[in-house]
Design brief:
The complex is a heterodimer of chains A (263) and B (580). Chain A is of the alpha/beta class and 263 residues long. Chain A contains 10 helices and 10 strands. In chain A, the strands form 2 sheets. Chain A has a 6-stranded mixed beta sheet with strand order 6-7-8-3-9-10, sandwiched between helices. Chain A has a 4-stranded antiparallel beta sheet with strand order 2-1-4-5, with helices on one face. Chain A starts with 13 loop residues before the first strand and ends in a 5-residue tail after the last helix. Chain B has 580 residues and is α+β, with helices and mostly antiparallel strands. Chain B is built from 21 helices and 11 strands. In chain B, strands 3, 4, 5, 6, 7, 8, 9 and 10 form an 8-stranded antiparallel beta sheet that branches. A 3-stranded antiparallel beta sheet of chain B has the order 2-1-11. The chains are: A alpha/beta (263), B alpha+beta (580). Chains A and B meet through helix 2, helix 3 and helix 6 of A and helix 17 and helix 18 of B.
Chain lengths: 263, 580
């Protein structure tokens, strides 16, 4: 079965494209022929039951699959028309422009400041200390964390609450000024209040970034995303505007999933 | 819990075996507590036995002599050159200083005895003093040297059982023939005479009992064997009878010999060893061990009794008397045993020290640390963070684990074959010892480092990679600092093991008597040396009794070294951990 490339419903510029992407882990195929166009400056949600391949696809976008032994990614992936699934493309360069936020908050066991400053430091984005301070402050402000931590930047990042940690991680990701931010179930380890804050933040960040979020919560997908892609058994089943997917699914499986018949 | 009857069958079932569960828990806790108590008890016994055995070696008795560094004796060629100074008659200088202390000693045999208060090796030390400071030549110089090991032990009270008895009467000493007649105006010798006769009677009884036993055994036998036994029994009986006859005669003195306690009359730098005690309890005969001539009757005198008979101890009455006299004159003082730390090994216990072994251990450890830690850590880093997981790396992993189980002496053989025979490195050198111990420590470091790296959460690596850090940056910025405490712990365990190792050093000639300490410098790595555990091993085997205490002292120094090492590790670990 071949999935047809699905165009985004709105007339936004296309940021990320995938054509016939196949991923297998040690010979076991995890993703079948996925083709998709993801628009810029909006939130695209990937939904689907566990093991459907949505996280696998997400990890293709910053080549994190390279770090897994036995992972083979084939097909074409582009960001701004530039091929990224190519050995000649340095994953380090790619990851500098594609930030990622993980399921569990994973701040470095360093100070809040150093967490945010790490990316700019290794990429040499700031030449002077005041420049770096500015980058850190901006990133923390964008992540909505500045007011809470500005007086204790040298405290350990691991000492923050779960929600704060996740926002710190987002600040760390946006400190290198990426174009795409990947979020792999960013709220699944958080309580509803922290979740609400992150969702608010995602909504704000949409103005400037292309955000792709994997989520298990259909309500969350409905709340934060403009476009939704439904994955099932390694296939991209349906892709369209979030409204369409939730109110008028074309595929039976999508309908079954969003009405809670399985998953 | 309530008293209402349970309706639920599950609750009944649970309650039924609840008692057994709690009993099992109690048993387990008791067993655990017992194990901890046993371990602590054994540790306490071990430590207290080492400390009590080793502490005496930390003090030493030093003999201070005023030596006359006569220019002619020290500088025979008269030009003050090193060559000339090395030919000086330093033994003779020491000997004349000793003779000045005891001018009455004249006979050759007695003099030789007198010079055994110190070891002749001290002449070399005196020469070193002169070589270091030639301005001493022609002056009178106070030279201190350690007292002979047995006498040091005697003064520490480890060699003989002795006591000093006070006296009541006035003492007169009169020369009579070749003896001294010792007279007290009170019956000061009565108790001692009674003691001696009790001892003799007991000895007679023992002889008779032995004779009975021999006769009994001979009854069942025939031939020459039985005859020999009967003859021996007869001799025993005759000896017993002689002893009893002398004691029962009532008159005549009781003779004292080397099989009986030594009784010494001491008064103002005079000492008389009693050879017989008269029955009246007030007179005795003896001979001078110190001083001589008749004295004014005096009340200032004591009886010094050495209960360990002269036959059964290593130091004679004469040496003990001289030692006591020197101590009384203030020439012998108990001081902190600096020789233990200032000297390398020596045949003479009083001059033997741990300096050589300590320096050897330090140099060896420097090599071991410099080789095993970086190689071990980087090997583990590569295997854990970079190497693909395939058959080949699995094989390497298995072999590293096997290497940890190889008996340490095998590494010694390897060191002999490779480092000494193939590479031609010097024998007995800390360099080779360090290399061999590195081989031994490597697997421990690698395994501990891999475990520490595995314990670093994967999420940290992902976080670093996701912001665009390269693999190497991820490892060095995040993984390694987080694993550092674990790596340090592993490395310290490995190095502590290496610090206490003797077997692999056997093969490369580091288990040897080495009388010079290596220098703590670059050249020290190739000089002959030994290490602390080897020194413990060598001393524990020493014939001299004084080496016993030194063994304990060396163990204490080794323990202190280990504790210092571990303390450093804990400090470093704390510092790394502070970076959360």
């Amino acid at each position: 079965m071949t999935d047809t490339p699905l165009n985004p419903p709105a007339d936004l510029p296309i940021k990320v494209t995938a054509r016939n992407v196949v991923v297998s882990y040690s010979g076991k195929q995890a993703l079948h022929d996925v083709s998709i166009d993801i628009p810029d400056r909006s939130v695209t949600a990937f939904i689907g039951p566990s093991g459907c391949g949505k996280s696998t696809f997400l990890r293709c976008l910053n080549r994190m699959n390279d770090t897994i032994d036995g992972a083979v990614v084939s097909g074409s992936l582009t960001i701004d028309g530039q091929e990224i699934n190519d050995k000649t493309i340095d994953p380090v360069v790619l990851r500098a422009s594609v930030g990622m936020v993980f399921q569990k908050p994973n701040p470095f066991p360093k100070s809040i400041y150093d967490n945010v400053a790490y990316g700019p430091r290794i990429h040499g984005l700031a030449l002077t200390r005041p420049e770096l301070d500015e980058i850190v402050e901006n990133a923390l402000r964008k992540a909505g964390l500045w007011d809470e931590v500005s007086d204790r930047l040298n405290h350990p990042g691991t000492g923050l609450s779960g929600g704060q940690q996740q926002r710190l991680v987002i600040a760390r990701a946006i400190a290198v000024n990426p174009e795409v931010i990947l979020m792999d179930e960013p709220c699944s380890a958080l309580d509803p209040i922290a979740t609400a804050r992150i969702e608010e933040l995602i909504d704000e960040l949409r103005e400037n970034y292309c955000i792709i979020i994997v989520t298990h919560s259909m309500q969350q997908a409905a709340r934060v995303s403009q476009h939704t892609a439904f994955f099932h058994m390694g296939h991209l089943v349906e892709y369209g505007s979030t409204e369409d997917i939730f109110t008028n699914p074309r595929d039976k499986r999508t309908q079954d999933y969003i009405t809670g018949r399985f998953g | 819990m309530t008293d209402t009857p349970d309706i639920s069958p599950i609750r009944t079932a649970v309650r039924k075996n609840l008692g057994a569960r709690y009993r099992a828990e109690l048993r387990f806790r008791a067993a655990g507590l017992g194990a901890v108590a046993a371990a602590v008890g054994i540790l306490i016994i071990l430590l207290s036995s080492i400390v009590s055995g080793g502490l005496p070696a930390f003090t030493a008795h030093e003999l201070a002599l005023t030596v006359d560094l006569d220019r002619e004796a020290v500088d025979p060629m008269g030009d003050g050159s090193e060559d000339s100074l090395r030919r000086g008659g330093y033994s003779r200088i020491l000997q004349s200083a000793m003779r000045a202390e005891f001018p009455e000693v004249q006979a050759r045999r007695d003099l030789r005895n007198l010079f055994s208060l110190y070891t002749a090796l001290n002449a070399t030390r005196l020469m070193d003093d002169v070589l270091e400071d030639p301005s001493l030549i022609g002056t009178r110089h106070v030279f201190t040297m350690p007292l002979a090991d047995d006498l040091d032990l005697y003064l520490k009270g480890h060699l003989v059982d002795d006591r000093t008895l006070s006296t009541n009467g006035r003492l007169t000493l009169t020369d009579e023939d070749r003896d001294v007649l010792v007279r007290s105006s009170a019956t000061d010798f009565r108790d001692l005479a009674a003691e001696v006769s009790r001892t003799l009677r007991a000895r007679a009884t023992v002889l008779e009992v032995e004779a009975d036993a021999l006769e009994l055994r001979a009854e069942g036998l025939t031939g020459t064997e039985a005859e020999d036994m009967l003859y021996e029994a007869q001799v025993n009986r005759r000896q017993a009878a002689d002893i009893r006859a002398t004691l029962d005669a009532g008159a005549g003195p009781i003779e004292l010999d080397g099989s009986l306690p030594s009784i010494i009359v001491e008064s103002d730098q005079r000492a008389v060893l009693l050879t017989s005690l008269a029955r009246d309890g007030a007179t005795a005969r003896g001979r001078y061990l110190l001083g001589g001539g008749e004295i004014e009757p005096t009340e200032a005198w004591t009886l010094y009794v050495i209960d360990t008979p002269a036959e059964r101890r290593r130091v004679s009455d004469q040496l003990i008397v001289w030692t006591r006299a020197l101590e009384e004159r203030g020439a012998i003082r108990a001081v902190f045993n600096t020789y233990l730390f200032a000297n390398a090994d020596s045949r003479e216990p009083e001059l033997a020290g741990v300096k050589g072994a300590l320096y050897g251990s330090i140099l060896t450890m420097i090599i071991t640390i410099m080789i095993s830690v970086p190689i071990g850590v980087f090997t583990a880093l590569y295997l854990e963070e970079y190497a693909p997981k395939n058959r080949f790396t699995a094989l390497i992993e298995v072999n590293i684990n096997n290497l940890a189980a190889v008996p340490s002496i095998v590494f010694g053989l390897l060191g002999l074959a490779v480092f000494i025979n193939a590479f031609g490195l010097p024998r007995s050198a800390p360099l080779v010892g360090g290399l061999v111990l590195s081989l031994m420590t490597l697997p421990t470091v690698i395994i501990a480092t891999r475990a520490a790296l595995q314990a670093v959460p994967q999420s940290i690596r992902q976080a670093a990679l996701a912001v665009g850090a390269s693999r190497t940056q991820t490892v060095f910025h995040h993984v390694l600092p987080l694993a550092a405490p674990g790596i340090l712990t592993g490395a310290i365990i490995g190095l502590a093991q290496a610090l206490g190792e003797t077997a692999p050093l056997l093969m490369i000639g580091m288990v040897a008597f080495i009388a010079d300490a290596p220098t703590l410098g670059l050249e020290g790595f190739t000089q002959p040396a030994t290490v602390m555990p080897v020194q413990v091993f060598l001393w524990s085997d020493g014939a001299e009794r004084a080496f016993q205490a030194r063994t304990g002292a060396a163990i204490l120094v080794l323990l202190a070294l280990m504790i210092g090492f571990n303390a450093l590790a804990i400090y470093l670990r704390r510092r790394f951990e502070r970076r959360w």
